[in-house]
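look at this:
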Amino acid sequence: MKILVCIDDTDNIDSRGTGTLAEMIAGAIEEHNWGKCSWITRHQLLIDPAIPYTSHNSSMCFAADIESGCLQQIIDYAAEFLVRESQVEADPGLCITVVDDLFDKQSLIDFGYKAKREVVTKADAYSLARKLNIHLSEHGGNGQGIIGALAGAGLRLSYNDGRFKGRLKIDAPDNIISVKDLCSHPAVDEVRSLEGACLEAGEFVLLENMVKPILIEGKSVILVQQLNEANVRALWKTCSKNQLSAYEEMRTFVADK
């Protein structure tokens, strides 16, 4: 059974981030032999004065392949964990979606993109969760985090939203690596330009400080831009954090169309 686990609004500006708590839940699932978890993605939602959030209004989601009999154990564990580990002033929410049981995946995806563009309510989130038989629960504060938790699950389900948590550490002479060798990393499927072109295996990339995959068409993709300065080997370099953010905003606009 494949599930999506998404949490939101667990932290404050000085505490461990929501991504760290998502890692801990994923680790517990594997330690208890309930299932095997995949990488965690960060999903940026709308920044608006009407929305309370700690710093960036983003949720964290991961997929897991589990034994069907373990679903309730995972729900119970994650709920208790959020109560115990979230900050007192936070408004944590938990969403656990059984992917194969979703009869209307597009409605969940649409909700995710809507939460990137406009203000949505807890009532909206609960209404959709009931309709799709999705577990959605609040575990402190005003429970506002359920909105981001449900939205994050929808965005992950789209296979076209989210940056992977953390940065890749890749050793390469002079920080230059071939596309072939970069794609040999277990967390990298493809290398693409910002314009969408897939780079050839024999091309070379200069690794800047930000080597972070992004979820595109269900693949873990490293985005690169052309080097303006002359380099005898590399014609490309990895994108900055600001460029990745701008790329995500652009994809939200395209999805809206």
Q: What stands out?
A: The two ends are 33 Å apart (CA to CA). The chain has a mean pLDDT of 89. The chain has two domains: 2-163, 167-256. Residues 104 and 132 are 7 Å apart (CA to CA).
